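Appendix C. Worked example: JmjC domain-containing protein
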Amino acid sequence: MKSTAQFNLTHEWWKVFRKESNDLTDSLLKEEVLPKKDLAELEDMVFEVISKICSKRTLKYGFRVWVDNEQKNIHFIRKRIFNNLPENDTNVESWADRILPNKKFCFVINHANKFSDSLTQKMSLIMEPLVSQIGIPMDGMHIGIFIGNYGFTPFGIHQDPMGAYFFNFHLGPGEKVMYNWNEDEYAKLKGTHNNINVQPLLSESKEFNLNSGSIYFMPWDKFHVAKTDDFSISLSVWFDNHTTKYVSENLFFKLFDKLEKGKESIPELVKYDSYKEKFHLIENYLSLDSLDKPLRHYFLESYNNQMLLLLSNCGWSANTTTLEEEINYNILNTDMVLKNSVQLVEPFKIYTVLDNKLLKVFARGHMLTFPYEKVLLKTIDELNTGKIFKTNCLNQNEEEGETIATILSNLYNCRAIKLLGRN
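Step 2, the predicted output written as structure tokens:
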């Protein structure tokens, strides 16, 4: 994957972008940023996402469909979308024309990065100079995709969740017009959420015309709607900078999953004179009696783990599928990594935490655990330099070589390192 120099989205470019957007508090449009070559490459990656979603037949990561402004149910999606895999089509537009001829349609995909590692890498390289300046949200980031010729956004004028703001990379080829209203101004217009009566309010909006190659930023507090009359594709990088309540709830549910160890059952009914005696049912289910430290310790541990998972994945909250999931890669068979030199996948980093005699390794949004050995830390430190790691010398010390090969195979499985060819 090439560096972001090809996009001119350097550290300095993002500093100027921040200044012109009043440090990411005002909407901003920058035109002709992405060159044609990279627009075509990104469209191919979107095509890969569509193909994966259709082959997996899943709505799990926010795939939604509107046709002629009507949201379609799972039965329609299975019959018209999933049953028409984009196998012989040349691009997204030709596939859409084939399955929905002469229709106005809108496809929305959340967490597109789950389905394409090449897209995740590409967008990570684009965003890394900005992320290195401002950091990542506690709830992470995700890549959304809008595809279609749907006219106005089918769910109308709306405001995004508090703290969630996005960068829209418009691939085209059709134009997209974004209309913005400040929160107070929209309230004076007596505008409502998900307002589909758009036309009367347009004269009071601020208009942004997105053409192929444009980058558009919008903070969370703007009411907005888009208009896309001709077929176009937009990629959006969302900073899910949600409220502390939202973040805390997410962390709590992750901790709950960890504590949940008992056998699920239907609890006994309670009466006033016996309800206190029944708490043991909850205590046993959550294994609370086995906790040897205050609950705050486990909550803090859950927080630290979650932040390192995000940081190891450049902020993306959904990690790409592993090679084991996608191609049945056998982690235990280390021959492949031993026959090749390897290198860290840019711009990702691997993080480690020593927990008693276990080494927790955070890589591409996955947490791996190994019995602690100094050679593991040494190997990860060397990989994090970005230099080529040669594996042909690992056989000199059989036991140490096996330890290194094991962690390399695991890192390759979760796409943290890449194979460069034979040593």
